[in-house]
Amino acid sequence: MNFSRAYAEINRKNVISNIEVLRRFAVNCEICLVVKADAYGHGAINIASVAQDCGVKTLGVATVSEGIELRDSGIQAEILLLSEPDPESLVEAVRHGLTPTITSTVGMNKLRDCAVAFGELIKNDLMVETEVIPIHIKVETGMHRSGAEEETAFQLVKQVEAEQRFKLKGVWSHLACADERNNAANSLQINRFKNFVKLLKFKDRNSVKLHIANTAGLMMFKEAHFDMARSGIGVYGYYPSQVVKEQVTFAGNNSYGCLKPVLELKAKVRKVSMVKHGEGISYGHQFIADRDMEIATIPIGYADGIPRSLGRNGSSYFVIINNNPCKITGVVTMDHLMVDVTGLNVRPDDDVILIGRSKDCKIDAQDIADEIGTIHYEVLTRIGQRVQRIVV
End-to-end CA distance of the chain, in Å? Predict the structure, then answer.
């Protein structure tokens, strides 16, 4: 197998270590490990397999196709759909034993149709995962994205409890500002959720998982833990924000342990060229050599998730070659970028680190995010499918 173009190393031990850290926060609640968006760019099947080996019982995905991919790979854990599927894909969700989140009467009605079709599949001895359809209901508490308004959510819960072929497995919501410790929206949302739950008077409370906390909520608000917390960014080795990181790791009592980045993005030098003083490099010649320079071409570009803007003049981003920081020269192209390696004795096939660390240098997703004015979530999830993920 040839990894000579560009690849991401996925550190299995760091995944396990991060799960252990998250569990220290979740003393009395379960962790739902979120593997949507190809596990934030890390490879969903790889991460889900490690999580399952660690005893994680629930995985979170965004789409039915993401869930089916995990089922087809042999993942047996509960797979929670974090958004209500479109009506056309609900049948496939049920067929593959996924747990849908329902937030509308349209979704509930379609699920009833699925239950009828599902019953026919069982009657005809066709392959199905379970005889009862598990369901979570999401209620809106302040994110204003995809939850059902309280009155609708209440009716949905009661409809699920009334249906023999349905099983209410969870009621949940999502914190919008959990990475801001002092934001009043957090207590408002948590209290709204508590008050809503009190109204429900469940038929079988022990079988229902209540959850509102994401990674930041898990780390910052014990009152948001309930029965389960959903963690995405944490398992990949990043804190949700600098505020959360400082609160957790610099508070004088870091008994939880530190998260460790899971992904290192690497490539190899394709070629090294001499560029004379005054010549331009890359499209538009936005970079002009201010001296005779040695330029290394690296076979990874914006189609692989490296932001084009990292090559602009004045950017502080660098890659690491032979333990040396090397600045990008010229705009990043679709498949390549060029870096200054003058005087560093760099040769073709030398290793290049784009996210990761060497003995003396480090560059991580947060550094890139700071450089281009975004968040580390985006940097990780934009790493393209041409970049092979290798578990190490």
Answer: 15
Residue 59 one-letter amino acid: L
Banded pLDDT at 119 (limits 50, 70, 90): low
CA 155 centroid distance within chain: 31
Of the listed 7, 13, 36, 222, which one is catalytic? 36
Q: pTM of this prediction?
A: 0.92
- Contacts (Cβ under 8 Å, ≥6 apart) of 257: 17, 20, 21, 24
E strands, the chain, where?
Answer: 6-10, 30-34, 58-61, 78-81, 101-102, 133-138, 166-172, 209-211, 228-231, 263-268, 271-275, 280-281, 287-288, 293-298, 318-321, 324-327, 337-340, 351-357, 362-363, 388-391
Helices (H), 129-277: 150-162, 184-200, 215-220, 242-249
Q: Using DSSP, how many helices (H) and how many strands (E) does the chain show?
A: 12, 20
Residue 226 and residue 174 in contact, taking contact as beta carbons nearer than 8 Å = no
Check pLDDT > 90 for residue 67.
Answer: yes
Strand partners, 195: none
Using CB atoms within 10 Å of the CB of residue 163, give its burial: 0 to 12 exposed, 13 to 18 middle, 19+ buried: middle
The residue annotated as part of the active site, out of 123, 201, 283, 317, is: 283
Domains of the chain: 12-249 (3.20.20.10), 263-391 (2.40.37.10)
Residue 283 bears catalytic tag? yes
Name the DSSP letter for residue 284.
G
Alpha-carbon distance values, 311 to 1, 298, 342, 371 (Å): 31, 13, 17, 11
What is the spatial distance between Cα 26 and Cα 229, in angstroms, rounded to a whole number? 8
Range with the largest mean pLDDT of 30-39, 180-189, 195-204: 30-39
Question: Taking all residues of the chain, what is their mean pLDDT, rounded to a whole number?
Answer: 92
DSSP annotation of 127: -
Query: Hey, which residues does 351 pair with through a beta bridge?
Result: 268
Cα gap 326→333, rounded to integer Å: 17
Q: How far apart are CA 84 and CA 283, in angstroms?
A: 43
Tokens standing for residue 63 = 């789409």
Answer yes or no: is pLDDT of 129 > 70. Answer: no
